[in-house]
Write a structure and sequence with these properties.
Layout: E1 4-9, H1 14-31, E2 34-42, H2 52-70, E3 74-81, H3 84-99, E4 103-107, H4 121-127, E5 132-136
Parallel strand pairs: 1-2, 1-4, 2-3, 4-5
Helix pairs in contact: 3-4
Domain UspA: 1-137
Pfam family, one: Usp
InterPro entries: Rossmann-like_a/b/a_fold, UspA
């Protein structure tokens, strides 16, 4: 059913992503799907990397580490942005089309009142793509 899973990754918050990474591994094995880990970084130095190239190298290392966990084929794709927070949803939607992903698995937070004003990323991505979107809440 699913052949290509895209997983948005924030390298600054890997610890929060663990529940969703477990789901990614299970789904990829179940469907024998390839996985692309996608990261969005600033074009300026940040807490994870000094340059977009360094960020891409760290994202690729993360992808290879995850490959050793689940054994499915992996790739990593980093996107640079002048404002990753403001541009995140649009970049993820663009990535889905570029990569041809048919399932997006994203970590998400528990619903908050602020979501009425600023919707969660998963909701916007789901409403602007034909791909299936699986949101994984924290334990």
């Amino acid at each position: 059913m699913f052949k290509h899973i895209m997983v948005p990754i924030d390298l600054a918050h890997i610890d929060v992503l663990e529940p969703s990474l477990d789901v990614v591994a299970d789904m990829a094995k179940h469907y024998d799907a390839k996985i692309t880990y996608v990261g969005v970084t600033s074009n300026t130095p940040n807490s994870v990397a000094r340059t977009p190239n360094e960020y891409e190298q760290k994202l690729d290392a993360f992808a290879q580490k995850r490959h050793s966990v689940h054994g499915q084929p992996v790739t990593a794709k980093a996107y640079g942005s002048t404002d990753p927070v403001a541009n995140l949803d649009d970049i993820l939607i663009k990535a889905i089309d570029e990569l041809g992903a048919d399932l997006i698995i994203m970590a998400t937070h528990l619903p908050k009142k602020l979501d009425a004003v600023m919707p969660a990323h998963g909701g916007k991505v789901a409403s602007h793509t034909d791909a299936s979107v699986f949101l994984v809440r924290p334990h």
